[in-house]
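Reply to thread "Modeling small-molecule complexes from scratch"

Following up on the discussion above, here's a worked example others can learn from. I took a protein sequence and the SMILES for S-adenosylmethionine and predicted the complex. Inputs first:
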Amino acid sequence: MDAKAIASQRQAIIDKYGEWTNHNIRLADGVDTIGDRVVPSGVKLRRFLQLVADLAGTSSFEGLRVLDLACLEGLYGIEMALHGAEVVGIEGREENIEKARFAKDVLNLDKVEFYQDDVRNLSGDKYGEFDLVLCIGIFYHLDAPDLFAFTENMAAVCRRWLLLDTHVGKDAQTQYNYRDRVYWGTRYPEEQTAWSSIGNPESLWLTRPSLYNLLADVGFTSVCECHLPLVPKYEIMRANDEADRSTFVATKGTPVTLKATPLENDRPRDRWLERF
Ligand SMILES: C[S@@+](CC[C@H](N)C(=O)[O-])C[C@H]1O[C@@H](n2cnc3c(N)ncnc32)[C@H](O)[C@@H]1O
């Protein structure tokens, strides 16, 4: 397809499903899904791509199987695929998944599959296992108890890294019990937009301590937070002490056994404490 034909197909998608809302993907010379302007997802993409390249120790993602949860218009998965990864994207809304599929087809990405599904249906039986799970902009849209089962499911399908970009609740306002553990968070109303959650009128933003405890409880062995590359919007939110948002990498490794200080091996693992 030449650029003119691609531009006309892009217009047909817009006529049917509306404009692209956030993911600006180059389809051909002079044809981008959103157009000739910078959108916020670009700066985040730079962060995520650098992070994955640094973790993997290579800028080629050949051999990596990547899951992009709630993938919207497909940008993050498509970028990983352009670097060699095999990608599965899951997205609940038809207008978003059709745009993602269109970009995949135009770019001839035969190692990418996009499925219209609810992320709460994630399972290994359905989608297999992944070296890298991208959970970007969906965690804080879910509510309890789904959020807890969803985190378990992400851990179950994850062989190595979970890249989690999420809001965290500032206050330990509401308590939840799940599998005999206690977690805390702040409740938020879910406005009904093209980006909001499907089916739950409110969502739960876990506090940082509860997020870390939950990730440990479902089997991740370490959690780190990304500060560079910078996402300026997150830093502005932090500076204003607004509800916080950040990017975390949870790794599913093998629990270590200490040799020089073996007494520590028998001590129960510490848990993060809430600030009330
Ligand atoms: C805030 S957007 C984030 C999109 C993308 N990951 C990004 O960061 O640009 C949330 C996305 O999740 C999708 N979504 C919401 N609830 C979902 C659900 N239960 N299952 C699958 N997709 C869902 C929305 O349609 C939307 O595309």
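What I'd highlight from this example: The first strand starts at residue 26 and ends at 28. The two ends are 59 Å apart (CA to CA). Questions welcome below.
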